Amino acid sequence: MPEPDLQQLAALLRWYEDNGVDEISADAPVDHTAVRKASTQAPARVPAPAQATRRPQAAALPPGGEASADARKQADGARTLEELEAIVRGFEGCALKETATNTVFSDGNPKAAIMVIGEAPGAEEDRRGKPFVGPAGQLLDRMLASIGLDRTTVHITNILPWRPPGNRQPNAGEIATCLPFVERQVALIAPKLVLLAGGTSAKALLGTTEGITRLRGRWVDHHYPGLAAPTPTLPIYHPAYLLRQPAMKRDAWRDLLSVAARMEGLGIGPGGENSPSGTIAD
User: Fold this and answer.
1) What is the pLDDT of residues 197-229, one digit of tens each?
2) Residue 4, C-beta contacts closer than 8 angstroms, at least 6 positions apart
3) Mean pLDDT, rounded, of the chain
4) pTM
């Protein structure tokens, strides 16, 4: 029997997660009549009142332990973006740093009103030390250009500053360890809008277990540590996912139009001749 291709299996699991498939059927059948009979013995619950807007569920993300606490303490001590970058580059509490070529901190305008937060560096990002510079980054540039933005008008970073080996999905411990750094980065920049590119960044920052297909297109007023007021935040498809699933560009374009509308409402963005062009270029 041939050995399974682990990279293909990992890619398939990521595809399932991107499409919101996060559970499987049990091996044994469940007698739901027995479940109902048992439930009649318990006191009836009063249903909670319906909410006007549905908020993400709380995530079951385990704490990062001492490394996470140390990262939080160091991150909170940063008073400027330059200080935070120096802290991240000197941090030794995440094993991913040992296998990465470079620390990938951020790119773009540190005073931008719009912040884009992705998942983790890929091979090209790791080689060059900048986020979103590979094929997915090139698509992100075209997505931003379609609503009159570029890297001089946004700030770009990732949940993790180091590439996981083989571009694997980062685990919960790695995310929890690095999360204080990106949250402090948001606090120091204080953007007016935040775009979360991909399920990993959306789940980590919003504290949810929902998949990106359920989260995308839904604005959330999210409280980031260190900021007094909530920041409008929109999960969007990661450009890498759109490269694999180009049919989803229609939904991505709707999300970009929603961003453009928010920009106009807040009085930010170039406007004028740089208004939305009507499509995401291939």
Assistant:
1) 999 999 999 999 999 999 999 999 999 999 999
2) none
3) 83
4) 0.75
